[in-house]
Amino acid sequence: MKTVTLEPRPFSEYLQITGTLEARNRLKIVAEEAGTLKRIVRDKGRVARQGDTLAVIENKIIEASYQETRAALNQAELTYSTKKVLYSKKAISENEYLEAKYGLE
User: Cα–Cα distances in Å, from 15 out to 12, 18, 19, 98?
Assistant: First the structure.
């Protein structure tokens, strides 16, 4: 048996092969919510990391629910600020003031 020491050197030989590469791991990506695909953000074949946005889905029901919740929050903020002023002037009871305060929280 003969041993040789390996060292870096130019490699002039090559082998041309035709074939198909397949990923070792595959992922199935599903959306948490249903909706209409509005736009694809990440190009096919590009690397994505956890938390990256791949696509934007439009869901009119969720959007309407968000707008309704936002309007309720705005109303609660307005009610609280009004009742806070009225309570400071002793125009309403502490109970009314606290209801508005807790309604905002």
Answer: 10, 10, 12, 80
Cα atoms in the Cβ-side hemisphere of radius 13 Å centred on 5: 1
- In contact, 87 and 96? CB cutoff 8 Å: yes
Separation in Å, CA 44 to CA 1, 2, 48, 55, 81: 51, 50, 10, 11, 50
How much is the pTM? Answer: 0.51
Q: Tens of pLDDT along 92-104?
A: 999 999 999 998 8
Closest CA to 60 of 25, 41, 35, 24: 35
In eight-state DSSP terms, residue 55 is E
Q: Where are the domains of the chain?
A: 36-43+52-104
Q: What gap in Å lies between CA 78 and CA 71, rounded to an integer?
A: 11
Beta bridge partners of 33: none
